[in-house]
TrEMBL record:
GO terms for molecular function: peroxiredoxin activity. Residues 20-103 form the Carboxymuconolactone decarboxylase-like domain. It comes from Pyxidicoccus fallax. This is Carboxymuconolactone decarboxylase family protein.
């Protein structure tokens, strides 16, 4: 099967026509190699990635990584706690922005 027969990845859909090399590196190196290394579980990698996004205020990237963290076994409650914990280390504005984004992406807790 050629690469043209494979379904387009998220990186290819987002950047492939504009920055094909970045899309390729995202697919092959970041997700094809780094995320597959056995030294950390995907769940742990998701926690680390989400923490880095909160710390740096990268709310746009949270749209991909917060739901992926849930897919990788992180609970909604753990993400909320991660953000709450980081408020004291990375700043209240970063935590509040991340919590707003998490609420948009993950919804409200059912009563």
């Amino acid at each position: 099967m050629s690469t043209t027969d494979k379904p387009a990845t998220a990186a290819q859909k987002a950047l492939g026509d504009f920055a094909p090399k970045l899309a390729e590196l995202t697919d092959d190196v970041l997700f094809g190699d780094v995320w597959e290394r056995p030294e950390l579980s995907k769940r742990d990698r998701s926690l680390i990635t989400c923490a880095a996004l909160v710390a740096t205020g990268k709310t746009e990237q949270m749209g991909f990584h917060f739901p992926r963290a849930i897919e990788n076994g992180v609970t909604r409650e753990e993400l909320v706690e991660l953000i709450t914990h980081l408020a004291f280390y990375v700043g209240w504005p970063n935590a509040m922005s991340a919590m707003t984004r998490a609420r948009e992406l993950l919804g409200r807790k059912e009563p």
